[in-house]
Design goal:
The complex is a heterotrimer of chains A (350), B (504) and C (395). Helix content of chain A is 42%, strand content 10%. Chain A has 350 residues and is mostly helical. In chain A, the strands form four sheets. In chain A, strands 8-1-9 form a three-stranded mixed sheet. Chain A has a two-stranded antiparallel ribbon with strand order 2-3. The longest helix of chain A is centred in the C-terminal third of the chain and has 84 residues. Chain A is rod-shaped. Chain B folds into four domains: 106 residues, Alpha-Beta Complex (Cytochrome C3), CATH 3.90.10; 90 residues, Cytochrome C3; 110 residues, Cytochrome C3 (Alpha-Beta Complex); 103 residues, Cytochrome C3, CATH 3.90.10. Chain B is 33% helix and 8% strand. Chain B is built from 18 helices and twelve strands. In chain B, helix 12 runs antiparallel to helix 17. By secondary structure, chain C is mostly helical. Chain C has a single domain, classed as Up-down Bundle (Formate dehydrogenase/DMSO reductase fold). Helices cover 69% and strands 0% of the residues of chain C. Chain C starts with 20 loop residues before the first helix and ends in a 14-residue tail after the last helix. Classes of the chains: A mainly alpha (350), B mainly alpha (504), C mainly alpha (395). Chains in contact: A-B, A-C, B-C. Chains A and C meet through helix 1, helix 3, helix 4, strand 6 and helix 8 of A and helix 1, helix 2, helix 4, helix 6 and helix 7 of C.
């Protein structure tokens, strides 16, 4: 076999702790690693300067932008998404008018608390670190792209142009920098402080305080606090989240739990089917056996009946023959006696 | 072959039913938000009569007044000498659901049908023609806006004849009469709903105002609007020229008086009513319910007639435009002031209490204390000359890497903000000194002549836990935020710092 | 190549010259497919597919993997019917169905090898790093095991052909166990292929998305399998007519029996889907554009073939059963396409939708051609369409 039973079970239980699958018992609540980091994106502060995009490319050693200059705002005329060379992009969702400035938002991997990508990867190439970022291990990836398909935020991209060593490309939350005590490149670069890096629990408090102090500036909701189990990126907005292409009305249940709930059926199938199907087989075999028996019994009965009839016929014929024989003997005796009598008579007269 | 026909026939039937029936299932007209004109009235039942079975009718009054101009308002309304009953004539005095439905249907559809028969332009006669399913609608209707100018213009038509419009209800004799000195706002008695004969504000104003306008225009005299858009369309309202200057509306108010509550220790507030009058559009800007003194409804502990708002709250609530402090707070968000005040949570601080509460307490004053005297306007001392504490230019080069250092015109900015403060009595009085202005940018630090550098508190890394940004963000948010809030068009990168040439 | 005294169907007939039209066309298709795959491995998926960041799965997953697995379900359905539920009258079609199944799953693996970013890492989930929380891990494991099961179940024909009697006996004795194992594995991976889409709450249109998607996939796979056996029988019965030992009447009865099964399965599938819509209160969605398209799939390719199958069974009409089978096959493929890339990302603007490139279609057709060629080669030589007389006692 390919994977040991212990490894299988261990893997399931271990991942269940991270993903909370219904397969393992989840009476205990795991609220996430304490002290993990997050980022607060205040879209009311974003001015669309794209310094974050430039910094991200620099930090990740990705090829620079082609085409127009970085401050050419015509790039906002179309909604963009992350690509294999642009791990983060800024989109404009509302144009400026007399009373209000334009509304922008930065898109990137949301580093979910319960990452879908990690759950659906068949080679466990994703890892939710205790520090908060979700890491991708390219050395394990076989390129099935289930993660790209599953991400509800359309955050992952794939290197389709790479023939032999393609990778999934996504924001890493600058994990190496965080380990060194620095902050992610985008947070460092943003001149307006629209991105704040810090402990996730503290950032939630900061966000709540900002909303409390400026109720007319913000929609009273922190996106990412609970949606699909929550994300490390927390977003504040001054316009309804729907306008920013964010679904703030989704369930708080972690998406991986929804996606793997069905797998709890697997052990049941493996254990119940053999017995059940063997029973079906046994029933059908028994049915055949009984049918065969019935046929044999019918044949035997018919044969016995035929034998009986034959015997009767034979007995009758034997009796008849005996009778005939007796009659014939009688007749012969009579003839013989008559013949002897006639001879005697003839001999006395001469 | 009958045996073939049945199953294939039923198959065909299934397909046909599905193809024809299903589209009706969910094809709600998915219109985008549609806009209702100001003259659109949405017809619905009062809640007590039950839920609507069909979408409410959006009745365009303007179209009807236009088409039925020759027949006049009497076609649908009861018109008396100086009043027009805004209720629909056939539905008057009906209170049962079916009766109302029948009345409207008979009248509306009947009229439409008879016009169709006479080959005239008419409205719909089928159910769906009037009961149209719409998505959420936004209406362009704006509430009637009353101000000093409008009152003065009416006053000019009826000089000293306040009783033309103002009345009070004599409960004993059960009639309306005019009482001099008791003129009040309409909304003092007329609320949101009809209470027996006490009409709602909407119905009362339509009855009286439109009725009077109608009568005068019939008599050929200059009159106000008789159609919906005349009062309820923003673009039309803008065309009415305001009186300039507007004469002061006198109703026996004092120029200056003391505001103080009984049994309190704080000093009374010398209130200059004369200076405050032009700050609002009309009396109702502060006297939001009626012209009674605040304490009549807003008792010390809060009373139901005051919506349980206490007396203290009625003067000090920061979020209300009716309270003193609230209105001052709103002024601090004007474009001239918002640059600094946007990041100051409230304009009110503990220091400002004494600026208002400058008189003796009510106990100390006694019952015969004279009203507060007129005082001179506050003038701030001039700005001091440039020193290194008040520099002309500040060179910000601590972070210069992608861009060249910023040459910040410090003095110019201070002078511009200072000019705005001097223009406003409110600002001058509450600021009190010229140095107070510094705290607008040099915030969260000791007020006075010692103003720290930004980098004294904002380091290279942000302190996320206390929401304190790093130095670069502090500069950008402070400068750009102020420019944006005050409408100053200097928010591009190179507006403040020139780009470095590549390689430098 | 065992020759025996008892008569074997002549394996020589039916094989034409090397340059027959069939051979030439298949060769062209296969060579073209190989060339495209060479480009795929030298210039990447971008050069040979229309896959995008929003659409990571396209035709190769939608057809080769998703539809391929569903259409190859005939193997487990027929073998379970014959060996577990005692429906011995279907014995003659078990071997072709198993072979179709085996080649179908082989096609799935080929499709994966073409589509995966790094196909040489395909064994990684088993040998290097397992991700057992993933539905795809379970699918991979089950498909790998089931391919093995199908392979073993296909060996009796080869062993008979090679005359390895003892081995044939050993493998024959494992039939029941393999069939049970096959049914277990098939139930799991057919439904888990659907379960893979449980995460796509936002990205898959609500009419196709359901918490019961695994059940939908499983039932439709059974229907697809039965229909595919009818379709495959339609073709191979004619192509290998000289080998077939059963009478036309018996063959027709078998197909009509399959039609009955398919009718019941499709009726259950239809009911499950309708109840699903009712549970989620999605009736109003049927009136939208997407709803119309959903009804095309549900009415035209599920309800209509269900009724046609029922009529075919009642009227003993083989042609009608075959028409219904073709409709069902198209319907299941359409359903897999809808779930994979048509109703997937339904909220994206139209300009960003995925349409397969001709290279993807060519490679898919090449894989199918390969399966057909393999089937033909095997069936011409080995006792697939008939019972080997020397081994009659082992069947």
């Amino acid at each position: 076999m390919t994977i040991s039973r212990r490894g299988f079970i261990g893997g399931v239980l271990g991942s269940a702790a991270l993903t909370g699958t219904a397969g393992a018992s989840t009476v205990e609540y795991f609220g996430g690693y304490p002290g993990r980091y997050g980022l607060l994106h205040d879209t009311t502060l974003c001015v669309g300067c794209r310094s974050c995009e430039v910094a991200c490319k620099k930090v990740n050693e990705l090829p620079p932008f082609e085409g127009n200059a970085i401050d050419d705002h015509s790039v906002f005329d179309n909604k963009r998404r992350t690509t294999d060379t642009a791990l983060t992009v800024v989109n404009r969702y509302r144009e400026a008018d007399d009373q209000h400035p334009a509304v922008y938002r930065k898109l990137q991997c949301m580093h979910c608390e319960e990452p879908c990508c990690a759950t659906v990867c068949p080679v466990h190439a994703f890892e939710k670190t205790p520090e908060g970022p979700v890491l991708y291990h390219a050395e394990l990836c076989m390129g099935c792209r289930y993660c790209v398909m599953a991400c509800p935020y359309y955050a992952l991209a794939y290197e389709y142009e790479n023939p032999l060593t393609p990778r999934v490309m996504r924001c890493t939350m600058c994990y190496p920098r965080i380990k060194e005590g620095l902050i992610p490149g985008c947070a460092e670069a943003c001149p307006m402080g629209a991105i704040t890096f810090g402990r996730r629990d503290e950032l939630i408090k900061v966000a709540r305080e900002r909303i409390r102090k400026n109720p007319e500036r913000y929609v009273d909701h922190i996106f990412g606090e609970n949606e699909f189990g929550g994300t490390s990126w927390l977003i504040l907005a001054g316009v309804p989240f729907k306008e920013l292409d964010l679904h703030a009305d989704v369930t708080h249940e972690p998406l991986p739990a929804i996606g793997t709930s069905y797998l709890s059926v697997v052990p049941l199938v493996i254990t119940i089917y053999p017995g059940l199907l063997a029973a079906f087989y046994a029933f059908s075999k028994r049915k055949d056996h009984l049918a065969k028996q019935e046929i044999e019994a019918a044949v035997a009965e018919t044969r016995a009946k035929a034998d009986e009839e034959a015997e009767e016929k034979l007995a009758k014929a034997a009796e008849k023959a005996k009778k005939n024989q007796e009659k014939a003997v009688e007749r012969a005796v009579k003839e013989a006696v008559a013949k002897a009598g006639a001879e005697q008579e003839k001999g006395g007269e001469s | 072959m009958t045996r073939y026909a049945n199953p294939l026939g039923s198959l065909g039937l299934v397909v046909a039913v599905v193809a024809l029936g299903v589209p009706g299932l969910g094809l709600a007209s998915e219109e985008a938000t549609h806009i209702m004109s100001p003259s659109t009235v949405v017809m619905g039942f009062p809640e007590s009569l039950g839920a609507l079975q069909r979408p409410a009718v959006e009745f365009d009054h303007a179209i009807h007044t236009k088409e039925l101009k020759s027949e006049g308002c009497v076609k649908c309304h009861v018109v008396e000498e100086t009043s027009l009953n805004p209720a629909f004539k056939p539905a008057l005095n009906l209170t049962d659901r079916n009766g109302l439905i029948d009345a409207y249907h008979t009248a509306c559809v009947g009229c439409h049908q008879s016009r169709i028969d006479a080959s005239l332009k008419a409205g719909p006669v089928v159910c769906g023609g009037c009961h149209v399913r719409h998505e959420a609608a936004t209406s362009q209707w704006v509430a009637m806006h009353w101000d000093y100018s409008l009152h003065a213009r009416h006053d000019q038509v009826f000089p000293d004849k306040c009783g033309t419009c103002h009345h009070v209800y004599n409960k004993a004799e059960k009639k309306l009469e005019y009482k001099k000195g008791a003129e009040d706002s309409c909304s003092a008695c007329h609320g949101d709903h009809d209470e027996g004969k006490n009409l709602s504000l909407t119905n009362a104003s339509h009855t009286s105002c439109v009725g009077c306008h109608l009568e005068r225009s019939k008599a050929g005299e200059k009159a106000g609007p008789t159609d919906c858009v005349g009062c309820h369309d923003e673009s039309v309202l803008k065309t009415y020229p305001p009186l300039d200057p507007v004469p002061r509306l006198l109703r026996g108010q004092h120029d200056r008086s003391w505001i103080g509550a009984e049994n309190t220790r704080s000093g009374m507030v010398p209130f200059n009513h004369l200076d405050h009058e032009p700050q609002a559009d009309f009396c109702s800007g502060c006297h939001h319910a009626n012209l009674d003194p605040c304490v009549k409804c807003h008792t010390a502990m809060g009373a139901p007639e005051g919506d349980l708002v206490t007396l203290q709250e009625s003067y000090h609530r920061v979020t209300s435009s009716f309270s003193c402090v609230g209105c001052h707070e709103e002024r601090a968000r004007d474009t001239e002031c918002v640059g600094c005040h946007r990041s100051i949570p409230t304009a009110v601080s503990q220091r400002s209490c004494a600026i208002c509460h400058s008189g003796p307490s009510r106990k100390e004053a006694g019952p015969d204390y004279p009203p507060p005297p007129a005082t001179a306007k506050t003038t701030l001392p001039p700005l001091p000359a440039s020193t290194d504490k008040l520099p002309d230019t500040v060179e910000i080069k601590v972070l210069a890497s992608t861009y060249k250092p910023v040459q910040m015109p410090h003095r110019k900015i201070v002078e511009k903000l200072d000019a705005g403060i001097r223009k406003s009595q409110l600002a001058s009085t509450f600021h009190g000194t010229t140095e107070r202005l510094c705290a607008g940018c040099h915030h969260h630090s000791q007020e006075g002549t010692f103003e720290p550098h930004c980098r004294a508190c904002h380091g290279e890394m942000a302190a996320a836990g206390i929401d304190r940004p790093d130095l670069k963000v502090a500069y950008h948010r402070q400068c750009m935020g102020c420019h944006e809030a005050m409408g100053i068009k200097k928010v591009g990168c190179t507006d403040c710092h020139a780009a470095k040439e590549v390689g430098s | 190549m065992s020759e025996s005294a008892t008569s074997l169907p002549s394996s020589a007939s039916g094989r034409g010259s090397l340059l027959s039209p069939f051979n030439v066309i298949s060769a062209v298709i296969l060579l073209g497919g190989a060339a495209i795959l060479a480009v795929r491995f030298t210039r990447g998926l971008a050069a040979t597919t229309n896959l995008s960041y929003n659409y990571p799965w396209g035709l190769w997953i939608g057809f080769d993997v998703m539809s391929g697995v569903a259409l190859a379900a005939g193997g487990f359905v027929t073998s379970s019917a014959v060996y577990l539920f005692g429906m011995k009258e279907y014995k003659p079609i078990v071997r072709p169905a198993i072979l179709t199944g085996f080649l179908g799953y082989f096609l799935v693996v080929l499709g994966l090898l073409a589509d995966l970013g790094r196909p040489w890492r395909l064994p990684y989930p088993f040998i290097r790093s397992a991700g057992p929380t993933s539905p795809l891990f379970e699918v991979a494991l089950c498909v790998a095991l089931y391919l093995t099961v199908l392979f073993i179940e296909s060996t009796p024909a080869a062993l008979e052909w090679l005359g390895l009697r003892w081995w044939r006996k050993v493998v024959g004795s494992m039939t029941i166990v393999l069939t049970i194992l096959g049914l277990i594995l098939s139930t799991m991976h057919q439904s888990t292929l659907g379960a893979m889409y449980l995460v796509s709450v936002l990205r898959l249109h609500p009419l196709w998305y359901s918490a019961q998607i695994p059940v939908h996939f499983f039932i439709s796979a059974v229907a697809a399998g039965l229909s595919m056996v009818i379709v495959e029988g339609m073709i191979s019965h004619r192509a290998f007519h000289h080998q077939v030992q059963i009478s036309e009447e018996r063959f027709k009865r078998i197909n009509i029996g399959l039609a009955k099964g398919a009718a019941v399965t499709l009726a259950v599938y239809f009911a499950v889907k309708v109840i699903g819509i009712s549970l989620e209160n999605e009736w109003h969605l049927l009136g939208t554009g997407w709803g119309m398209w959903y009804l095309v799939e549900l009415i035209g390719f599920v309800l209509v073939p269900c009724i046609l199958f029922s009529v075919a069974y009642r009227e003993d009409n083989l042609l009608l059963a075959r028409v219904a089978a073709i409709l069902t096959v198209f319907g299941v493929v359409l359903n897999r396409f809808n779930v994979t890339f048509i109703a997937f990302n339904w909220q994206l603007p139209e300009g960003q939708r995925y349409v397969p490139r001709w290279t993807e279609i060519w490679v898919t057709v090449a894989f199918i051609t390969f399966a057909v060629v393999a089937f033909r080669w095997i069936a011409q030589r080995m006792p697939i369409m008939y019972e080997h007389p020397d081994y009659k006692d082992m069947h």
